[in-house]
Amino acid sequence: MNNKKVAIIGGGLSGLYAAYLLEKHGITDYVLLEARTQLGGRINSVSVDPNSNIDTVDLGPTWFWPDFQRQLDDLITELELARFTQYDTGNMLIERSQHEAPIATEGFMASPESVRLSGGMMALINKLRSHLKNQHIMLGKVVRKIQNLDGDITIHYQESQDKNTTKTDSVAVQHVLLALPPRVIENTIEFTPSLPTVLTNQWRNTATWMAAHAKYVAVYDKPFWRDDGLSGSAQSRLGPMVEIHDASMPNGSAALFGFLGVPATVRQQVTHDELKSHCLNQLTRLFGEQATNPKLTVLKDWAQDQYTATQLDFNNINEHGRAPETTANSGPWAGKIIGVGSEWSAQFPGYVAGAIEAATDGVKAYIDLKRSAP
To answer: What domains sit in the chain, N to C, each tagged with a CATH number?
Structure first.
């Protein structure tokens, strides 16, 4: 069994930024455990061209808003990441029913501006990882149990790739930073002794942003819709996508993406290929025959991602909610665990900016605990 001062559970943006902040404070005696085989969590950018770091499309969060998400904007500036404004020049399309053709109407000018990163949001993940000195970043490790014995904490985890084993490894720590959605933690990790009921109820009732969503992307050689005076934006009551946007990369491939309005419970009963076919048919209805032959299509159903969604997410309205408590107020877990995932952000719960805010507050709380310790 290894021993570390602190464990970070979750290798998404909040977990990586927590590690980045710890190292800025001179703390390198930590371990980061991530269940997936890659970092990023709900940030997921797919490469269109494996030889290009720029030519990517986002399957998770896409935008940020520097005008009011100042902390995230400062970090992106600090890391010297390139950015660009979301393309919205031209008309948008409105699709009301199958009995009438889509209507082109003047588009909405986003205010404040929606901004994207060159290389997708994954560029932020990759840049943060490149700054970390600690090599104890372990992928494919699923945390099953966190045990507290008189203040000594043991984290038990399994290999995510080995579905049939019951074997666990462990690491001993003094504190835990929880960089996962609260509902996922409550649903998948056993705490011994049990967490206070009030706390687990809060975590269970905190919706995980994106957990009920599905996103479809179609990639093309050029943004042909712009030649027709269209922005690439569309809204539809017919579906399957209810909201569509231009996802093109500057100096890269052109793309359209949309959020599916089909409920997660219905999507479960349809194959990915069928859903992709319906989405492509919709793009053809909206944007014409040139939309028929994309060079790549991708569908990401976050409701079927075991590390993002729970059964509760299939039935609940998925929205940005109020942040729950980050730790127990009393008892053996008080101050020993600290929630740092995006849903714990007071201002931007569930957003990319929320991951930065929650990690900042959580690491500060941990540093304050260390300073006040006898």
So the answer is: 1-43+122-210+309-374 (3.50.50.60), 44-120+212-307 (3.90.660.10)
